[in-house]
Amino acid sequence: xxxxxxxKALRIIWNTDKKWFFFNISFTLLMGFAPIFTLWIxxxxxxxxxxxxxxxxxxxxxxxxxxxxxxxxxIISSSIxxxxxxxxxxxxxxxEHTLQKMVLDKVTRVPxxxxxxxxxxxxxxxxHGSKGTxxxxxxxxxxxxxxxxxxxxxxLVYLYSVHWSLSLLCFLSSxxxxxxxxxxxxxxxxxxxxxxxxxxEAMIASNLLSDRQTSxxxxxxxxxxxxxxxxxxxxxxxxxxxxxxxxxxxLINFGLNGITTLFYTASxxxxxxxxxxxxxxxxxxxxxxxxxxxxxxxxxxxxxxxxNIYENSLYLKEFFDFMDFQEEITxxxxxxxxxxxxxIKTGIEVQNVCFSYFKSxxxxxxxxxxxxxxxxxxxxxxxxxxxKTTLVKCLLGLYPVTDGKISIDGNNIQRFDKxxxxxxxxxxxxxxxxxxxxxxxxxxxxxxxxxxxxxxxxEAAHISGVDNFVQRFKNGYNTYLSRFLYDGEDLxxxxxxxxxxARSLISNSQIIILDEPTAALDPKAEMEVFQQFHxxxxxxxxxxxxxxxxxxxxxxxxxVMKDGEMVEVGTFKELISLNGExxxxxxxxxxxxxxxxxxxxx
Length: 602
Hints:
Rossmann fold, four-stranded antiparallel β-sheet, 19 helices, disordered C terminus
């Protein structure tokens, strides 16, 4: 195990549960000497009973004392085993909480670009399972090895006192087991590592089939059989590889058992020769056999535990590699934070911004430049793939720009503290989250500090139109949305959009970004939002993305995107008179709606 990795793991375990160390070290010392004491008492007890059966004079008091000592050792060993199991379970639970929290903190704090990297997801997948158990396993194995070494040394000392060859044979039997177990441990880890992408594919297919939200579309398009086959193919392929490894493992273990048997047979021959050469009592004979078998068994256990340490240390390495997961940062590092302006004075400046997605050679944004004045309403329009949403994510600081700069009041947004920045900038994305919690929580998540301020929640709900349908719910703002967790209310797409809009409003930020705010609304609801637009964006710098060219009339200026470039900027009238890209899209949509209206009338 890498020393640095081991020390990091040890530090986390120590900070999580210090008592575990003290108890386990004590248990290790006590249990390490227990086998030799048990062996010695057993030997003396058998010899005493043999003498008694042969009518030899013995002290009954000494026989009773041996029986009491044997009883005490059994009770102590059993008690320690139960206590050790309890403290291990307690430590695993505490570690599970600590490690899971570390992973979740990492996932929520890494740059947003990490989520474009499949290897990041593979890292998360490989950390699935009982983290506490797997994290504690190498340390437990080390303590078990220390315990076994104490027992082995005491056995070997006893066997050496009988004959030196017995100690040597016990030691030699461990070498092939140790080497084989180490190789198997390494192969098992890399099997799991390489199977991760396919395991993720099987899991995703399984989740799609069992998820309530996706179930209706899967049934409608009749793709269940296809997804089941895709899950089955991935599952069977991984299973076959696992079975192949398991078959190899069993064959190697079978061979190792044969080697162990040969060594034990050789030891038995030496013991028989010793019986012939000298007089041994029955208890001595039994004790020698138990010492040989016990030391071989303990040496085998040490070999397996060393292999387990290697295998589990790879898991520790995977954990810390994930926690240290870094990408190449394309923008220059900025030193020192500056405070976000309490009131924006000069506005947002986008200067020659370029951006490329993870491992993509194509630029999603190319030399985009615009100055947005404080309180200005900007509409960003363009066809799918034109770069609208990418521009917004760069403005939010989710994507670090490849080249160029985005600044607010002259300060690069990379210099703002993210928490402070996001208090002043809010966004409503088209793929907003539908939290399976209460109405109150769904709205208050826009400003978590107001989670208990029902008045502010209701104000945002009233402006967005949420209050109109919440009033019909029996539990009002404490109604759970969806039936995923508890019995609640299912909302339509338009109602969910209004909830998300209320979430954006309650943030009371200086800058509001709306990504297709009316995409899921019917024409009437859409008109209501457009009518409320000026009140929604009052005293705020507003940027909204829309496919509807008519909605752009509400903006002070319109930005037209095409193939990642900003091809036109101007007011609605200016762009129409320009008769360029915007005018083309506007006329195309106008003709569609006119044709649609004629069809409906006819």
